[in-house]
Amino acid sequence: MKPAKHHPARDPKSTGHGITRRDLLKSVAGLGAITAFSSCSTIVNHPSLQSDVIRRENEKAGTRDWQLKNTRIDPKTKYRCPWIEGYCSRTSVRPGESIGFHVSTNPASQFKLDIYRMGYYGGAGGRHVASLGPFKGEVQPDPPIGENRLRDCQWSPCATLKIPHDWVSGVYLGKLTTEHEQLQSYVIFIVRDDRQADFIFQCSDTTWQAYNRWPDQFALYDSGHEQWYCGPGVDVSFNRPYGKYCQILDAPLSTGSGEWFLWEYPLAYWMEANGYDVTYISNLDTHADPHGLRRAKGFISVGHDEYYSLEMYNNLRNAIADGLNVAFLSGNTICGRIDPRPGSNGAPNRIYGRVDYYGERDEGMMKRFPTMAKFPYQSPREDLVLGARSNVAPCTGGADWICSSPEHWIYQGTGMKQGDRIPGLIGWEYHGEPAAILGLAVVATGLVQDAPGKLNGGAYAATIYPAPRGNFVVNASTCWWADGLAEPPGYVRPSVYTSPEGVDRRVQQMTANVLEKMRATRKT
To answer: Are strands 235-237 and 170-178 parallel, antiparallel or unpaired?
Structure first.
């Protein structure tokens, strides 16, 4: 991943002037005692007494060493890095709980694992928190092709880490490096907590896994006959490495990190640069922990957030009814319904398949993706939560963000007028057909194109509607919203149908308006 030109984060209340970067402090992150046993490591530390968690965390010294410098993709598979690859035993883990790392090296090679928390850190983007190893690597077996084309690895763990109590909630990257050739790839996990916070940042990791083709053609979309199959009868597992991303970007230096870098990282970087009180969860936490949604003032769906279980849908809808504010800074959201269930080792929510689509049938979608017709369409309507449909044809395309309600509070401080545009911000998937919700406002809308000047018949709708307890729900109607917020190190700008143009003061101001209103309209 080539470092991109860096734009300093801006104060969310500013009208365009950049904020001064915080002076870096000498790192004070102690790792406590490390105990090695049978090639495994356990780290223990004392509880943190921090009160202003995110701001204080980002005052610590950062590094850009989290970026991969030497990686390789096997051309036979197109997606995997067999020389060094791995996965984590859990998608998210609390401080005090343990997580296992499962790694294969082919050929067998000693390797080490360096762990980084992703954030702002004075523009560095990450902070080094632990070094594990070296470990004696081994060639771990490729899993057999199981029922419904499932590839469920049962690799031995090389290390087990007990998460220190002073590790702040966030997205954590493990950088794997072989002694042989110094080849590298990532593993990724989320440290979550249970504290009261202003904002919950939900990582879209069920969608990361749906598009994971590891080891070659075994995504949720691979039927064995079609590479973009949209029907039932295919299962995927979190018990396998993330291969190179298979859509939109050819970015092998993100290997092992799902879709984190592509659509989500710029938002986290910007929020932490500006000191927002944010805590992080997995999609699967939304699935399994409905009470946890109620500890925040605002919930944020980010990037490409396509796959929801019925429990996720109901838990989020019930939390909105109870007063939670929600911002869908995402596209293609609440589209496919999944059924998380235990993996082969009994760990919960490690396997899922596509079992339905949300909302009523759309004939245009049936025509474009005929295998979608195999589902019963007995799931609830996505637009009743989102504010607009996700399952409407053509569903892909790009457009400018076009202001349609300049008097709305979301535009305060932006200077935008009726018809003003933010070039290329809508893409590559969007939401259309606003829901019939009392008080819903369409704040941006326009026609969608397959290429500049080539309309494809689609229209997007960015919406905001009032919820029952004075709260509200925002639908930005684009996977690319975060592109307008920040351009952190290592970020690669997407370009398909249209191209977003990067950091835009108006996108920053609208996002700040949303977050500030969330803080003002929810009591926890």
So the answer is: unpaired
- How do 85-88 and 92-93 pair as beta strands? unpaired
pTM for the predicted model, two decimal places: 0.90
Q: Are strands 170-178 and 432-434 parallel, antiparallel or unpaired?
A: unpaired
Q: What is the pLDDT of residues 22-58, one digit of tens each?
A: 322 222 233 333 222 223 322 222 233 334 999 999 9
Distances in whole angstroms, Cα of residue 147 to Cα of each of 41, 289, 376, 469: 34, 29, 22, 46
Cβ proximity of 243 and 255 under 8 Å: yes
Degrees to nearest 5, angle at CA 33 with 36 and 179 = 45
> How would you classify the pairing of strands 197-203 and 336-338?
unpaired
Beta bridge partners of 304: 331
* Residue written as token pair 């245009």: 364
149 phi, psi to nearest 5 deg: 60, 25
Residue 62 DSSP SS3: coil
| Tokens, residue 356 | 């339905």
The pair of three-digit structure tokens given for residue 173, joined into one six-digit string: 């990257």
The answer to whether 187 and 238 have CB atoms below 8 angstroms apart is no
* Chain Cα centroid distance, residue 450: 25
